[in-house]
C-alpha cells in the first residue's frame, strides 16, 4: 500500500513538472512573437531618401510647374521694312500671258573708243509728280511686290541683285565708288533712331505716379516721300555708224527735306546710286503701269531705253569747268529750265550739223 502511494505521488509530480515546463515554453513563444526582432535588414538607401525628402522640400524654394522660357533676343530692326510679297495661287488673268520673269534685256552695241568722236555727260531729274511720270508712283501689289519704283529698287538691293553706292555727304559723289549697307541706306532715308521718354504702363497702369521709361523711337520709311529721281547718262556719237547713242549709267532716288511746320523745301540730295546696266535684268521683269491701255504694258527696262519719261537737265559737262549744278549759278527756277533746254538743243544741233543737205 505504501509502495502504490509512493508511485502515485511520483507520477503526479512528473505530470506537474511537465505541465509547468509546457506552460513556460508557451509563454516564451508568445513573448518571442510579440517582441521585435533584434537583428533586422537595413533599409534601402532610396527608402531613407524618400523618408527624408519631405523635410528637405519644406526648406527649399517652391518650383513652378510650368518651365520658364527665356525671352528671345529682340530681332534687329529692318530700316527698309516693306510689306511681304504675296504671290497669287491662281491665274489672275483670263488670257495666257508670257511671264516677264523669262525676259532678258538685249546687250548694248559695242562702241570703240576711237569711234566716239563726241561724248557728253548729262544729269537729269525726274519728278514723279508730273503727269507723264505717274507710273513711278503706281501703288498696286503684284507677284513681284509693290510696284512703286523706289520699292523695286530697294527690293533688288535687299535681295542682293544690285549694289547701292554712296552719294556722298552732299550728293557730290556719283562715280559709284563706295558701296552702302542696308543700315546706311535706312539712315539716309528716314534718319537714325532716337531715345525718348514714354509712360511706363506696367509700373503705373493709370498714369497717376508719372513713371516714365526710355524707349527707342525709329521712324518708318514712307515710299511716297521719294518724289524725284536723278539719272546720269552719257551721249556718244559713233562715227562708224554715224549715230548718236545715249546710255544711262546710274539712277538715284532724291530725298527732299521739307520743314514740317512751314512746308518749305529745305534741300534735296541723292540718297544712293545704282549702276543701271546691273539693274536692267531686274527692270525687265517688272511691268510699267499704263493708265490708257492696261493690256499694252511695257517693262521698266523698255521705258528707260525708249525714254518714255519726262525730265529736265540739272547738270552737264558742256561749258562747265567748275562741275556745278545749274541751281548753283542760276537762282531763278524758270531760267534753270531754259538753261537745261539749251543744253539739250546743243546736243541735238551737234548731230544735225554733221550732215549736209
Short description:
With 357 residues, the protein is α+β, with helices and mostly antiparallel strands.
Helix-strand string: HHEEEHEHEEEEEEHHEHH
User: Which class do the helix and strand fractions yield?
Assistant: alpha+beta
Which sheet architecture does the biggest sheet show?
Answer: 7 strands, antiparallel
Rg (CA only): 47 Å
Characteristics of this structure?
357 residues, seven-stranded antiparallel β-sheet, two-stranded antiparallel sheet, 30% helix
How would you sum up this structure, described in words?
The chain has 357 residues and is α+β, with helices and mostly antiparallel strands. The chain has a domain at 115-186 and 225-325. 30% of the residues lie in helices and 21% in strands. The strands form three sheets. Strands 1, 4, 7, 8, 9, 10 and 11 form a seven-stranded antiparallel β-sheet that branches. The chain has a two-stranded antiparallel ribbon with strand order 2-3. Strand 2 (141-142) and strand 3 (145-146) form a beta hairpin. The longest helix has 33 residues, at 2-34. Mean pLDDT is 81; it is low at 36-41 and 46-51.
Amino acid at each position: 500500500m505504501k509502495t502504490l502511494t509512493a508511485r502515485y505521488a511520483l507520477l503526479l509530480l512528473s505530470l506537474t513538472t511537465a505541465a509547468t515546463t509546457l506552460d513556460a515554453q508557451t509563454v516564451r513563444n508568445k513573448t518571442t512573437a510579440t517582441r521585435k526582432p533584434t537583428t533586422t535588414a537595413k533599409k534601402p538607401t532610396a527608402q531613407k531618401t524618400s523618408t527624408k525628402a519631405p523635410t528637405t522640400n519644406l526648406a527649399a524654394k517652391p518650383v513652378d510647374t510650368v518651365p520658364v522660357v527665356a525671352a528671345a533676343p529682340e530681332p534687329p530692326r529692318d530700316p527698309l521694312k516693306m510689306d511681304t510679297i504675296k504671290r497669287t495661287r491662281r491665274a489672275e488673268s483670263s488670257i495666257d500671258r508670257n511671264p516677264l520673269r523669262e525676259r532678258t534685256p538685249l546687250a548694248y552695241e559695242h562702241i570703240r573708243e576711237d569711234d566716239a568722236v563726241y561724248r557728253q555727260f548729262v544729269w537729269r531729274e525726274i519728278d514723279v509728280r508730273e503727269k507723264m511720270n505717274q507710273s513711278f508712283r503706281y501703288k498696286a501689289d503684284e507677284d513681284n511686290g509693290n510696284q512703286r519704283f523706289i520699292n523695286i529698287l530697294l527690293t533688288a538691293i535687299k535681295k542682293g541683285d544690285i549694289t547701292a553706292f554712296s552719294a556722298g555727304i552732299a550728293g557730290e559723289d556719283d562715280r559709284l565708288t563706295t558701296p552702302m549697307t542696308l543700315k546706311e541706306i535706312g539712315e539716309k532715308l528716314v534718319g537714325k533712331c532716337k531715345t525718348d521718354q514714354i509712360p511706363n504702363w506696367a509700373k503705373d497702369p493709370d498714369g497717376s505716379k508719372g513713371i516714365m521709361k526710355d524707349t527707342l523711337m525709329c521712324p518708318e520709311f514712307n515710299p511716297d516721300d521719294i518724289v524725284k529721281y536723278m539719272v546720269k547718262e552719257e551721249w556718244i556719237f559713233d562715227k562708224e555708224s554715224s549715230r548718236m547713242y545715249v546710255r544711262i549709267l546710274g539712277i538715284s532716288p532724291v530725298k527732299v527735306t521739307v520743314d514740317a511746320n512751314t512746308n518749305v523745301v529745305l534741300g534735296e540730295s541723292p540718297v544712293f546710286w545704282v549702276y543701271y546696266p546691273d539693274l536692267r535684268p531686274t527692270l525687265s521683269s517688272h511691268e510699267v503701269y499704263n493708265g490708257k491701255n492696261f493690256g499694252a504694258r511695257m517693262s521698266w527696262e523698255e521705258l528707260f531705253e525708249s525714254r518714255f519719261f519726262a525730265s529736265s537737265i540739272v547738270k552737264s559737262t558742256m561749258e562747265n569747268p567748275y562741275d556745278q549744278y545749274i541751281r548753283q549759278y542760276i537762282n531763278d527756277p524758270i531760267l534753270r529750265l531754259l538753261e537745261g533746254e539749251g543744253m539739250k538743243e546743243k546736243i541735238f544741233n551737234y548731230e544735225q550739223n554733221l550732215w549736209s543737205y
